[in-house]
Amino acid sequence: MATTHQPVILMRPGAANDRLADVLRGDGIQAWRWPAFTITLPEDEAPVAQRFANLDDVDMVVMASPAAVTAVAHWVQKWPEHLKLATVGEGTARVIRAAWGSDVQVVCPTGDAASSGSEALFEILKNTQIPRRVLIARGQTGREWLSEQLTAMGADVEKISAYVRVPIELTPAQISELSVAVHGPAPIVYVTSTDAVAALLHAIRPVPEAREWFTRGTAITIHPRCAARLAEAGFQSIDITGAEDDQVRAVVMKHLC
Questions:
Q1: What residues does each domain of the chain span?
Q2: Candidates 3.20.20.10, 3.40.50.2000, 3.40.50.300, 3.40.50.10090; correct CATH number of 8-36+168-255?
Q3: Is residue 170 over pLDDT 80?
Q4: What is the pLDDT of residues 76-94, one digit of tens each?
């Protein structure tokens, strides 16, 4: 395949973004690596370390994302036997088992990304047993709806910022590249969360016409909620796919000019 094509911009945080870019490179697709967030540990780690060292008063820990797993693994080597883990999709469940072994108890929805999310996890918990004491490991914000629903069902919910998400800020080189690109074919952009949409719109603000250029292109995402946020932002061509690299690759190739 020729390497001349419209820009393909990948905004998934973490190593998964680099892995997908490498997959696409094998097809001659040169992707811009724009992770929506850089993930760091909290500046003051002591309160988080202390909390995860004392989990006797917790029945379930909810991992909000793969980033939460990576961060918490910094403090937890082995989970107490009484405690269950939960997450909102199979992708994060795989990361959990990679971090702590295949025997760890994980409650999560099954199926593709469209079948995942806080709502799907809550349905499982509601139809089995609502834990009495829940700790949600997340970034600075997130999973508010799940927290509210669990609290309404009688759970004692605590949220802890296990990591910090730093939104993308374009480098001078990226701004220069974007300033040239906005005069050419509109891009394909891969966005995996509603927060990433806001991060994108904030990051491109220094470049005139950038928002209009993006919204003329195609957005690829993994969840209907993110698709709705993209539509609100002005994107008219939105494609929903699964989160696996080969699924994203197939959709990118479908939209290449």
A1: 8-36+168-255, 40-164
A2: 3.40.50.10090
A3: yes
A4: 999 999 999 999 988 889 8
pLDDT tens figures, 121-156: 999 999 888 999 999 999 888 788 999 999 999 999
Percent of the chain with pLDDT over 70: 97
Q: How far apart are CA 12 and CA 205, in angstroms?
A: 20
Considering the domain 40-164, what is its CATH architecture? 3-Layer(aba) Sandwich (3.40)
CA gap 177, 179 in Å, rounded: 5
| Identity at 43, one-letter amino acid code | E
User: What's the CA gap between 29 and 6, in Å, rounded?
Assistant: 10
Please, are residues 152 and 30 in contact by the beta-carbon 8 Å criterion? no
- ∠ CA 196-218-111, rounded to 5°: 65
CB-based contacts of 67, cutoff 8 Å, min separation 6: 13, 14, 37, 39, 139, 163, 165
**DSSP label at residue 109:** -
Query: Residue 42 is which amino acid?
Result: P
Per the DSSP assignment, residues forming a β-bridge with 218 are 188, 237
Tell me the one-letter amino acid at 169. E
Parallel, antiparallel or unpaired: strands 37-40 and 164-167: antiparallel
Phi, psi (degrees; rounded to nearest 5) at 177: -65, -45
- Asked whether 221 and 9 are in contact (CB, 8 A), the reply is no
133, containing H or E segment? strand 133-138
pLDDT tens-digit profile of 7-62?
999 999 888 899 999 999 999 999 999 999 998 999 999 999 999 999 999 999 99
